[in-house]
């Protein structure tokens, strides 16, 4: 790294990451938490294949909060897991990628199609800080009773309002209000519900 970006900042990279500030992911505790998440996600997948009900304790151990009646079909890919909250009665289809450097909140009674991506990490647009591996994150919030169609991508910092529907393959780059159908890249509301 050519510049000491943190010369006046005594915090560890983990502390900067948790605060939502720029950091570099070379902290040993960050690596340990990522490895733990990968192990638990792998164990969850194997247990779910044998008996979905018996896999629930692993999901609860992996994620920050899991409501009653939640069903998450593996495979599930997360950065840490502990920064994810899923509300009651939500169904998550196969192959969710939830990069939870910042918090990800999924409301109650949601439906997430296969191959959905919930992405909180951000990187500098400027070339040198990006080359120096700086990154940060912004939270993602999905309201109650939201349906994310298969392959939808929700970008960092986005909030989707209650009861909204996001079309398959949509790329959500900005907040979506409650009670709308939004489609496209970038996703835009096309009608009210």
Number of helices: 4
Q: What percentage of amino acids are in beta strands?
A: 25-35%
Name the structural class: alpha/beta
Strand line-up in the sheet with most strands: 3-6-9-14-17-19-20
Distance between the termini: 50 Å
Give the H and E element order: HEHHEEEEEEEEEEHEEEEEEEEE
Q: Percentage of helical residues?
A: 10-25%
Shape: globular
Radius of gyration: 17 Å
Residue windows where pLDDT falls under 50 for at least 5 positions? none
Strand segment count? 20
The main sheet comes to:
7 strands, mixed
What is the residue-averaged pLDDT?
96
Structure explained in plain terms:
It contains four helices and 20 strands. It has about 190 residues and is α/β, with parallel strands linked by helices. A seven-stranded mixed sheet has the order 3-6-9-14-17-19-20, with no helix packed on it. Strands 2-5-8-13-16 form a five-stranded parallel sheet, with no helix packed on it. A hairpin with a 4-residue loop joins strand 19 (about 180-185) and strand 20. Helix 2 runs antiparallel to helix 3. The protein is globular and about 50 Å long.
